[in-house]
C-alpha cells in the first residue's frame, strides 16, 4: 500500500498545478479504487469525465468502479462506450460482470461471448483452454 500512497502524493502535486488534467484525475481515481476508497474514486473519475466526457479509459474505469456501487449504471456506461467504439471487448466484459451481479445469466453469457469475439487476447486465451 505504501507505493499507492506515494503515487497519490505525486498525483496531488500534479493536480495542484493542473486541476483539469483528466489523465491524472483518472489515475488518482484508479489508485483510490485500489485502496478501497470507492466514493472518493468516483468523485475523481467524475471530475475527469466532466472535463473530457469521451475519454474511453475514464469511462471504462468508471464502469468497473460502478460494479461496486450500481451494476445497472455500470451496464449503462458500457452501452455508452460500445456506441462510441463497437469493437471494445473490455466494455462487453464489464457489462457481462454487471449482468452477473444482477443474476441475469443470459445477458452475462451473451456479453461475455461478445467480449471474446471482439478481443483478440481473449480469443487467443480461449483457443488454449
Nutshell version of this structure?
It is elongated, with a radius of gyration of 16 Å. The protein is mainly α and 129 residues long. The model is unreliable at 125-129 (pLDDT under 50).
Architecture overview:
There is one protein chain. With 129 residues, the chain is mostly helical. The chain folds into 2 domains: 1-52, Serine Threonine Protein Phosphatase 5, Tetratricopeptide repeat (Alpha Horseshoe), CATH 1.25.40; 54-129, Serine Threonine Protein Phosphatase 5, Tetratricopeptide repeat. Helix content is 83%, strand content 0%. The longest helix is centred in the first third of the chain and has 16 residues, at 2-17. Mean pLDDT is 91; it is low at 125-129.
What are the main properties of this structure?
0% strand, 2 domains, Serine Threonine Protein Phosphatase 5, Tetratricopeptide repeat, single chain, mainly alpha, 8 helices, 129 residues
Amino acid at each position: 500500500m505504501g507505493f499507492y500512497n506515494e503515487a497519490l502524493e505525486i498525483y496531488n502535486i500534479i493536480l495542484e498545478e493542473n486541476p483539469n488534467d483528466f489523465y491524472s484525475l483518472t489515475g488518482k481515481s484508479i489508485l483510490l479504487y485500489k485502496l478501497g476508497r470507492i466514493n472518493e474514486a468516483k468523485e475523481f473519475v467524475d471530475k475527469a469525465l466532466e472535463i473530457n466526457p469521451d475519454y474511453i479509459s475514464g469511462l471504462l474505469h468508471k464502469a468497473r468502479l460502478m460494479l461496486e456501487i450500481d451494476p445497472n449504471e455500470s451496464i449503462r456506461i458500457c452501452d455508452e462506450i460500445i456506441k462510441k467504439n463497437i469493437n471494445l471487448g473490455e466494455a462487453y466484459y464489464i457489462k457481462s460482470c454487471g449482468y452477473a451481479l444482477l443474476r441475469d445469466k443470459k445477458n452475462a453469457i451473451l456479453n461475455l461471448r461478445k467480449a471474446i469475439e471482439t478481443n483478440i487476447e481473449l480469443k487467443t486465451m480461449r483457443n488454449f483452454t
